[in-house]
Amino acid sequence: MITSNNATTDSSASTTTTSQSVLDMVVIKTVPVDRVWLMRHIVMYPHEPFDFIKIDGDDTTALHYGVYIKQSGQDNNNNNNDVVDKEESLLLVSVVSLFVNGQKDEAQFRKFATLEQHQSRGYGTKLLGYLIEKVKEMGISKLWCSAREAKSSFYTRFGLIQVGQPYTKNNIKMIRMEMIINQQQ
Ligand SMILES: CC(C)(COP(=O)(O)OP(=O)(O)OC[C@H]1O[C@@H](n2cnc3c(N)ncnc32)[C@H](O)[C@@H]1OP(=O)(O)O)[C@@H](O)C(=O)NCCC(=O)NCCS
């Protein structure tokens, strides 16, 4: 792990170049918690007070991962300068936070968010794929999330299945989804 200025760089950060120009120079790495809070607020709860988006463990035990892209001229003109990694001139477009339980056998991912103007470009898919690989490496048995029911088909593609009954939180219909990562001996 290398830390420089405000940016924490995961030594396993991946740089992927694909044939799609929009996905050129995609870097997935750990994200400082203040940037994660900003992203959550912008994407998920812009009308709530800023502290609404903070959750227990965010600045202690949680692991935060994000997708950074090379800024295009268009991105340079937007108002998301606060989520730009200035040192590398990369724009943070998607984040997710991982919370591992005390026994280190289960992990929950929470607050998955891609900037609206960058949604449906495959960044969330890349980030969740990366997260699942990380969780596998950690030897964790089960990965789960509380998904917006309307988004459950997105997670089904990764092998997560719905568990239990839907419930309502902050006026949003939610469902628990989980997948077995490593079979316990
Ligand atoms: C959920 C969320 C994080 C997904 O992030 P994303 O970066 O848009 O994810 P992707 O681009 O990989 O996939 C989104 C959709 O675009 C599609 N897609 C992926 N790459 C694509 C491409 N190159 N061209 C067109 N569509 C594409 C995916 O199939 C997916 O379709 P679906 O919504 O029908 O399942 C994002 O929609 C978001 O931030 N939503 C608001 C906050 C939220 O609801 N968070 C989740 C709470 S459970």
Automatic annotation (TrEMBL):
Q: PROSITE patterns recorded for this chain? A: GNAT
Q: Which InterPro entries match?
A: Acyl_CoA_acyltransferase (IPR016181), GNAT_dom (IPR000182)
Query: SUPFAM superfamilies in the record, alphabetically?
Result: Acyl-CoA N-acyltransferases (Nat)
The molecular function GO annotations come to:
acyltransferase activity, transferring groups other than amino-acyl groups
Which Pfam family, an example, fits this chain? Acetyltransf_10
* N-acetyltransferase domain mapped to chain residues: 42-182
Q: What is this protein called?
A: N-acetyltransferase domain-containing protein
What are the leading ranks of the lineage?
A: Eukaryota, Amoebozoa, Evosea, Eumycetozoa, Dictyostelia
